[in-house]
Design brief:
8 strands; transferase; Alpha/beta knot
Length: about 325
């Protein structure tokens, strides 16, 4: 009997232990799942904190950086406002002057300029630039002459009554031609004549007038039946009467600009007075006179104060 009671007690204890194990197993699984949930919550919180750090850094910037940022924003806003005002001002000017100065496209203006230049070839005054004396010129002098040719052509394009330009004694393999290509954009497309021939063999001698400051005769008018010649010569040593002597050798008429007739010498510290002008300055005088028929106005445009001359009216 004791053995049976002891066996039944053991069985009862084993049943209790099994029930406790089952209970522990059930509670263990719930505890583990709950732990995983807590870990997941911690990870999500850390991830959210990392996501919010950049925006927090923007707040944490120093006051100096913020001040510089505000200053830069003010500058940008001021520039935008200025551009807007300038745009409105130009627009208002276009509206105001639309009846006086009609707006045209660049293509139309280029076409109009080309038409005027080609018309001058047939019916306008003719001007030759004698480039047969450039072989003794230095590189610096050639560069200056190339610049003068560019300015002369630019002034002629803008003129209401342009001349037809001819570059004579000009070879395409010369240093001057290379300098013109280097310095003058679109030089090969200039609307003018380029020839290797000398100006004295290209036109009848009786139609030629060589403009030189050494002539005794003042130019009175621009004659459409004449061909005017300018010596393409930049000489820093200032050799006198080079163009005058060349004209005499070919029995060609000469003339000078009427500086002495309409201008007087002005007192200056160096006591310097000169009637020698660059070819583009001489052309500006001829072109202005041809349009206005007014020598004082033309001379005022071409003869700078550095030459030591001033108009007679301004002295009086």
């Amino acid at each position: 009997m004791d053995w049976k009671l002891e066996g039944s007690a053991q069985e009862t204890e084993s049943h209790v232990l099994q029930e406790q194990e089952v209970t522990l197993e059930d509670t263990g699984e719930d505890g583990i799942s709950e732990s995983f949930q807590l870990l997941q919550i911690d990870v999500e919180c850390e991830h959210r904190e990392e996501m919010t750090l950049p925006t927090s850094n923007a707040v944490w910037r120093s006051k100096n950086v913020q001040r510089k940022q505000r200053h830069w924003e003010k500058i940008v806003a001021a520039k935008k406002s200025k551009r807007k005002q300038e745009k409105e001002r130009r627009k208002a000017n276009r509206v105001e002057n639309s009846g006086i100065y009609p707006q045209h496209s660049k293509r139309f203006l280029r076409s109009l300029t080309k038409e005027r230049l080609l018309e001058a070839k047939h019916s306008g005054p003719r001007l030759c630039i004698d480039l047969s004396m450039t072989h003794h010129m230095s590189k610096k002098e050639l560069s200056r002459l190339a610049g003068q040719i560019r300015r002369l052509y630019g002034s002629n394009k803008k003129a209401d009554r342009p001349f037809w330009i001819c570059l004579t004694g000009f070879t395409t393999d010369s240093p001057l031609y290379e300098e013109c290509l280097r310095m003058n954009d679109g030089f090969s497309s200039y609307l003018l004549d380029i020839t290797e021939e000398d100006c004295f063999s290209l036109f009848p001698l009786e139609t030629l007038v060589y403009l030189t400051p050494d002539s005794e005769h003042a130019l009175e008018d621009v004659d459409l039946n004449k061909v005017y010649i300018l010596g393409g010569l930049v000489d820093e040593s200032i050799q006198k009467k080079v163009t005058f002597q060349k004209a005499q050798e070919h029995s060609v008429k000469t003339a000078r600009l009427p500086i002495q007739e309409y201008m007087v010498r002005r007192q200056n510290g160096k006591n310097y007075h000169s009637e020698i002008l660059a070819i583009n300055q001489v052309f500006d005088i001829l072109s202005t006179y041809f349009e206005t028929q007014n020598w004082p106005e033309a001379l005022k445009k071409g003869v700078s104060s550095r030459k030591g001359y001033t108009l007679q009216n301004s002295v009086e």
